Amino acid sequence: MSCSSCSTGKDGQPKGCKNNGTCGTDGCNKLTVFDWLSNMSLPNGERPFDFVEVRFKNSRKEFFRNTENLSLSIGDIVATQAQSGHDIGMVTLTGELVRVQMKRKKVSFTDEEAPKVYRKASQKDIDIWQKCRDREEEIKKRAREIAIILKLQMKISDVEFQGDGSKATFYYTADERVDFRQLIKDMAKAFGIRIEMRQIGYRQEAQRLGGIGSCGRELCCSTWLTDFRSVSTSAARYQQLSLNPQKLAGQCGKLKCCLNYELDVYVDALKDFPAQDTKLFTEKGLAFCQKTDIFKEMLWFSYREDPGSWHVLSKDQVNEILEKNKKKEKVASLEMYAMEIAVEEKVVFENVVGQDSLTRFDRPKGGGNNNKNRNKNKNRNRNKNKNRNRNRNQKKDA
User: Given 97, 120, 143, which residue is the final one in a domain?
Assistant: First the structure.
């Protein structure tokens, strides 16, 4: 899914629309909602929902009331109400799905003071908006230089211009509280616009900037993830992952959001699973749990006197032994319950469709036959020489 301007250029090089996610056909936008009600007509007497969803730079989306009853569709560029002046954005959703989105995000659609859509953007509005977007990288670099000169412990990660070019919002991250009053004065003097500073978290920074994760795919937060749930190290412990910060941390420096994806499945599986610190009392001695396998429902136990030898027990067997231990009963030994795990032989290559061996190029072709032929030729030459010498000796004697 891409817009027509995201075609390839000369010699197959990617051309790209260079609109940074604001192309006119809404093809390369992030967090786009599929309008599955677009081909359905409203019942008789029903009026279309008067709110539309408008997307601005990156993932910022807001809802605006269509008071002028404009005929809007997905991909239209509109001028919307702002605190002062107007802003330019793109319509990403219309109709009844906007009501669903507003309910999900707990936004009231009965508020009379809701922001409004002024009009469809004219060519002049789009030119001013595009000119402001082209200045963002240069202004961001200059703002970082000013922050370094003032020795402020902050990182300016992104700049977003208002559609009319009268205001710019600077997004920054910082570990501690930052006094940026002098920074605002210097930037307002240098750029000649109104300045707004907005602090965001490290996850929001990664969402705005985007990137490729360790899995090889685009970051979830910059493509489809809309809300950020807290991720703790207990999620890694439930899934029996090694607590290695380099592997568990994402590009934002925090724990990866994908640690929560399968967490509920593990929690449900562990409800009737014996704990990691389970102890079994047997007549042979006290046994400790060394390893668990949640998917195969197996546990490995070893005696305190012999920690080197492990015995495999199923989840039901361990629960059975624990029930007996609660009644002050001891089992004879773990060997009575131990299971033998059959080691499956891994088939490297299986000739199913009559293919040749994959190792046919590893050995030289006809190497053995050549050696045999060489030995035969040597033996023939030796026999010939013997016969010649024998004939010569017979002639001399005669």
Answer: 120
Task: Check pLDDT > 90 for residue 123.
Answer: yes
Per-residue pLDDT tens digits for 327-360: 888 888 888 777 665 555 565 555 555 555 656 6
DSSP class of 348: S
**Co-location of 258 and 296 in the same domain:** no
Give the residue among 249, 203, 209, 248 at the shortest CA–CA distance from 226: 203
27, 34 contact by CB (below 8 A): no
| DSSP character at residue 43 | P
- CA-to-CA dists, residue 83 to 2, 116, 164, angstroms: 33, 11, 12
Amino acid at residue number 306: D
C-alpha atoms less than 13 angstroms from C-alpha of 304 in its C-beta half-sphere? 10
Per-residue pLDDT tens digits for 272-322: 888 888 888 888 888 888 888 888 888 888 888 888 888 888 888 888 888
CA distance 359 to 101: 59
Domain that holds residue 135: 127-200
Q: What percent of the chain has pLDDT over 70?
A: 78
pTM greater than 0.85 (yes/no): no
Beta strands in the chain (DSSP E): 51-55, 61-65, 77-81, 86-93, 117-120, 155-161, 167-173, 194-199, 279-281, 286-293, 298-303, 311-314
